[in-house]
Amino acid sequence: MTIEPPCTGTPRPMVMVGCGILQKEVEALIRKNGWNVETRFIESALHNYFGRLWTELDAALTAEERKGKDTVVFYGSCHPLMDRMLETHRTLRTCGQNCIVMLLGYERFMAELSRGAYFLLEEWALKWEPMLTACFGNNRTVLREIFHSSHKMIIAVRTPCSGDFTAAAEAAARFVDLPLEWIDADLTHLESVLADAIESKKQSTE
User: Fold this and answer.
1) DSSP state of 5
2) CA-CA distance, 168 to 73, in Å (whole number)?
3) Nearest Cα to Cα of residue 157 among 190, 129, 123
4) How far is CA 115 from CA 1, 98, 100, 110, 154, in A?
5) Is the pLDDT assigned to residue 106 strictly greater than 50?
6) DSSP, res 2
7) Residues 33 and 191: beta-carbon distance below 8 Å
8) What is the Cα–Cα distance from 10 to 70, expressed in whole angstroms?
């Protein structure tokens, strides 16, 4: 069932600025619902680098504001000062602790997390080893200790927009020496999260 597009009372164009981790899914839902919302995505691993995340998100929001556009942010609580960023730019973000909560919903997320899951999406699976070594260094023993200290398995999450990333997910699990499991996620919860954020932004500008 298609969610009705949010009201269109504001004359200013809107752009959703956010993490590229679910870019395909976000764009698919915007097309499906006919939302008059542009997108601007930022590198998906910046939650590992608070300084870069702040700088790049701030720059992206500033650039869109200078074009006369309203913004809404597609991010979780990925920076300790995220609320300050939103306040500075007079904008708001999607509701959810992180992208997996937005995709799966809080209850399903917590159920899998309680089992020791590390959630792996296609975007990260495809660049897993260079992403990890850039952040944590090349010592595989240390990397495995980091993951084993808080996780018992890798759970790869497929969505209707995912390609076949089986080989990449298997390689990622081997790299950190954890078993691999799979779950499928539809876009129902993410769709609701996006719709709520867009509607809230539109109401705030009326």
Assistant:
1) P
2) 29
3) 123
4) 32, 18, 15, 9, 11
5) yes
6) P
7) yes
8) 9
Q: What is the pLDDT of residue 45?
A: 83
Q: Are 198 and 72 in contact (CB under 8 A)?
A: yes
Percent of the chain scored above 90 by pLDDT? Answer: 82
d(CA 108, CA 54): 29
Q: Distance between CA atoms of 116 and 58, rounded to whole angstroms?
A: 33
The answer, yes or no, to whether residue 80 has pLDDT greater than 90, is: no
Q: Any idea how long the chain is?
A: 206
Query: Residue 38, class by beta-carbon neighbours within 10 Å (0-12 exposed, 13-18 middle, 19+ buried)?
Result: middle
Q: Is the pLDDT confidence value at 148 over 50?
A: yes
What's this model's pTM, rounded to 2 decimal places? 0.90
Q: Which CATH class is domain 14-99+187-205?
A: alpha beta
- The pLDDT-based confidence of 7 (bands split at 50, 70, 90) is very low
What per-residue confidence (pLDDT) applies to 11? 53
Between 188 and 136, whose confidence is greater?
A: 188
Residues 57 and 72: their CA atoms lie apart, in Å, by 12
Burial classification of residue 52, based on how many CB atoms lie within 10 Å of its CB (0-12 exposed, 13-18 middle, 19 or more buried): middle
pLDDT at 98: 95
Residues of the chain with CATH 3.40.50: 14-99+187-205
Contacts of 88 (CB under 8 A, 6+ apart): 58
